[in-house]
């Protein structure tokens, strides 16, 4: 936050300088420094049609506990996840399955690829309409599933295990995404979060790049070529739990606490289309 | 290091912004030049009439309903004020007008919405508001029907279905609104302009309101594709549906030898058979369709032979009809009956669809049927006669006040019961005598399903009184 304030102070001088420069020439320098890490260490470009690469991804199936902790309405199935035309398709359908009113998909790299620090980004086209809640996010690799045992120090549960939401999106706010962290003392509604809103564009009409550049004691959030937030230990009200490995998750939830349920206008089925997921160091 | 990153970002954002707003980029200039022809002025009314803008109220509307208000405005110096008249206002029954560019039109192809701020003196719903009505062909008319206003200023967005069509549009805004519950009220519009938002998306066009309609028809029939609507998703995440003109669409017939469809969505039935009318809007396929089931040549009812001096005609191509107020009163809230009237080789046929009851009124002047105290009409039931067919015709005499209601109305009920002579797909001449009562102030005929009859589709022709 301090950095941002300093920027505001100097911005008017920058503006004057830039006015002079821009009238002189139309040659814009398009190489802004949003990211600094460019050594590709892991990727899935989704270029092989069919099912997922099992060496990179696993599925979460079912409804989790209490709708994955959020009263979500969907049942996750592997059938709703497909690779075609060089893209990963996660499709949400309105259909009754195993007591749920919707089906969708959720995949993760847990146990297959877990990473501490780096630049993690994906290029994604999102759906629209109330109830859609797609996300590109990470959970701490030492997360323990199931019921917490308070006296056992070897078990680390959410939110102590930590969560980095690179991109969350609500289909009834088609121009806005959220970037957040959850940790001990700052989770759920108290997560440290910032919204990024597109001007004159939407997230459901084309592909956009969502990423973080993450290092020791900082996480920078960017969308396309705009760096819009930085979170550091000074921004969180509890322990910083992000200097350790995390795994990647892609999913599309329907309904639940954050988006609310779909309404009569919500169009089904719709697909979250992912062009690639890349990790740089 | 991190500071530097953010710094670069900010610099870049400034540069990018300036690159857009300055005029130093050759490419953008030349694009502007190619669009030359009609001005691209986006402003309709900000604080005053924009260049070329003129006000043209609708016939029958209250001409003085519009004024420029310098007291109440969203911002700037003035707003557009509209005073919707009370019911019975002698100056006009409603407020309605077009605002037209009289300099020949504007090139609106670079915009994607018409926007404005509006509020009203009480919560109200404007019947129709949009653009593209020019008192000419209204080729690219758009209407948001039922726009809800509040007493607070709210920004409204009316999407342009296909901006590339609007290279010479003079209809910059139009509206029509009547009293609400008999009472007039006022509403204000400010900062009326076209904009390029880039945030209106997910266009979903439809014909026949997105439904698959199947209709019986005949050679020579002309019907118009109806229910032309498009749904957009606004930046708020809320869908908005607008009614649009046929010229935005391209229509297609699955079998042009059975039925062909014009650019303006008029279907002409040519031969016996089935044809499905569908439409596209640019690359998008419109939902809904109109299936024409042509039964071949239309069989007209037997031509009336009574001398015209012995007839007072309500609906016939063979007599001069008395003035008729309406052939469908659309009586709310219980009437479901719609009109799908058609003509075959110029001969008009009344077609009532989704029928439960319908009234025809002819009270200006009233009909004196005392000397012609018999009713004739020709009835045609396409498809099948429902097993529970039961049909009532009511003649309403408005009494000495010659107006509906007033405590002096009398009614004569005429029953058409199910019998062997009630058949489908053939004209049935039906005649009744009214002679048992005085009929000198007849103002209405009401056709009605009774006893839960499930008759839904009828044709009527040659409705007249005779002696």
UniProtKB/TrEMBL annotation, chain A:
Keyword Ubl conjugation tagged: no
The keyword Hydrolase is assigned to this record: yes
CDD domains reported for this sequence: GH16_laminarinase_like
Limits of the GH16 domain: 35-281
UniProt keyword annotations, A-Z: Hydrolase
Example of a GO MF term: hydrolase activity, hydrolyzing O-glycosyl compounds
Family: Belongs to the glycosyl hydrolase 16 family.
Record PANTHER family: GLYCOSIDE HYDROLASE FAMILY 16 PROTEIN (PTHR10963:SF55), GLYCOSYL HYDROLASE-RELATED (PTHR10963)
Name the UniProt record assigns to this protein: Glycosyl hydrolase family 16
Organism: Polaribacter glomeratus
From TrEMBL, chain B:
UniProt xrefs under SUPFAM superfamilies: Galactose-binding domain-like, Invasin/intimin cell-adhesion fragments
Keyword Hydrolase recorded: yes
Keyword Hydrolase: yes
Keywords, sorted A to Z: Hydrolase
Regions that span the bilayer: none
A GO term for molecular function: hydrolase activity
Protein name: Glycosyl hydrolase family 16
